[in-house]
């Protein structure tokens, strides 16, 4: 069944000119990009987005990094989109990511790991609506 997930191309990938390559992988996988926007998050926006990690030691560094440069935010649609996009991304730590995944091939390090993807249907719904109105999404 078709579903939606939230994706981000993080500042390290945008700044190195990898956005087109990443979007191409999404499209090649059969998923559809149904919303796309370039943004520069404020620190407060990044803190709200990553609120689940507020007590983790890397929260300050992560939210500082995510507000340090432009990101592309997107909504992806397809069969099992949330699980499929996480598979294409690879493990959080590029050192653990499988061959052929985006993080294995493009990430700089554990923090600057090039892409974000929702980790459940619930987080997908929250993250999509954090940035997009339903009218922004065109299936
Ligand atoms: P994912 O992005 O794979 O869902 P998490 O939700 O666990 O991973 O973490 C969110 C983001 O925080 C990661 O993508 C990465 O950028 C950063 N991060 C996670 N763990 C660490 C860590 N131990 N040190 C530094 N940054 C981290
Ligand atoms: Mg996560």
Features:
4 strands; alpha+beta; four-stranded antiparallel β-sheet; 7 helices; 139 residues; binds adenosine-5'-diphosphate; binds magnesium ion; Alpha-Beta Plaits
What does this structure look like?
With 139 residues, this protein is of the alpha+beta class. It has one domain: Nucleoside diphosphate kinase-like domain (Alpha-Beta Plaits, 2-Layer Sandwich), CATH 3.30.70. 40% of the residues lie in helices and 20% in strands. The protein has a four-stranded antiparallel sheet with strand order 2-3-1-4, sandwiched between helices. α3 (43-49) crosses α4. The chain starts with a strand and ends in an 8-residue tail after the last helix. Bound molecules: adenosine-5'-diphosphate and magnesium ion. The site of adenosine-5'-diphosphate has 8 residues, from loops.
Using the 3D structure, state the CATH architecture: 2-Layer Sandwich
Task: Enumerate how many helices there are, as a single number.
Answer: 7
What is the chain-wise order of helices and strands? Answer: EHHEHHEHHEH
Strand order of the largest sheet: 2-3-1-4
> What form results from the Cα inertia axes?
globular
Tell me the major beta sheet: 4 strands, antiparallel
Under CATH at level 1, the class stands as Alpha Beta
Strand content: 15-25%
The CATH fourth-level homologous superfamily: Nucleoside diphosphate kinase-like domain
User: What structural category arises from helix and sheet content?
Assistant: alpha+beta
